[in-house]
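Hi R.,

Here's the chain you asked about this morning:
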Amino acid sequence: MINPEVPAKLDTLVYQAHMAAVHVLRPISRRYDTAEHEYPVELDTLAELVAQANAQQAGLNTTPEVEPSGSARSGEENVNGRNLASLVGLIEMCWGDVGLMLTMPRQGLGQAAIHAVATPEQLRRFGGRWAAMAITEPEAGSDSAAIRTTAVLDGDEYVLNGEKIYVTSGDRAELIVVWATLDRSAGRGAIKSFVVERDNPGLKLDRLEHKLGIRASDTANFVLENCRVPKENLLGSPELATTREGFAGVMQTFDNTRPMVAGMAVGVARAALDRTRELLEEAGVTIEYDRPAATQTAAVADFIRLEADWEASRLLALRAAWMSDNRLPNKLAASIAKAKAGRVATEVTLRCVELCGTVGYAEDELLEKWARDAKILDIFEGTQQIQQLVIARELLGKSSSELR
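And the predicted structure, written out as tokens:
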């Protein structure tokens, strides 16, 4: 049974993350939203402080470098609460600025994939480095099984060819985890993940995207032209090159990162609610929680409804992270949390802009920025429609081929 309260042992972590959001992220939020693609140098110092805080938490960390749910890695102790710690830390940091959080050094979705299937030797080589994930292609967005990037074994190296788009932190990361297929005719079982050094001459930056939101985070497009990587950089044991386990293992990444994206959405939505409450009170609108919403003004009734939706999102995200920490399969819970939080964040931030009128729409406030930032949280890590499809498959016991 999950307790919806954040454990007392995480109070220090939550406080530190919130202070970082207040004193580091918020003050530079508008600057790096305007100066898109300019690297936020202030994050280098913050990253060092986060690393020190992680060490003090006796193994708990605040980045999305989470481990697969349902089974412990061989020889590795389960640190109960690791994913929950990541989640509550992310919520606070994204209350400050989600784009800046996404460009924090030494984290990223790539590390979650590395941790999901890497061998102990690969963990020693790649663990802890700033790693981006390259999955999406022009012809393969939500359907990751449609990947066309190829990997061909040539002696002691794999040769990768293809194109990857929308790679978060792709230009700034040290490593890129590239999904590629060993045999396009073999379907999902031939899709594997490869670790590519960012300075590999075969990995060519095509362009950086100009985006609606999360502008502080660079989003890169790459072309892989005869990109040669050591065969030891195929994530997982060598036997995975001839089995379906590689694809299934890396797909576990999403069972752990989707609750984290839900946490990002929860953080952004709470930022909008907190500021809207302050602006309403400054305008003389009082929110009375001991009175029925129907007996208060329309603005207050709407605000209370938004808060209720936000709380539901927060609890669903906590539940999914808790299940992962306790080795319980959480595919269904992760998709429910991500679907709910992504939709709620978009609705909450847009409605808060409306509730605050011209103040909410102007650049004097961050409300309009949060509305722009929130939209991506309903898209990446699987769109709203994909989450509903995953949920339906899990509830009905259908495979991906049976329910499309």
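DSSP finds twelve helices and seven strands in the chain.

Let me know if you need anything else.
M.
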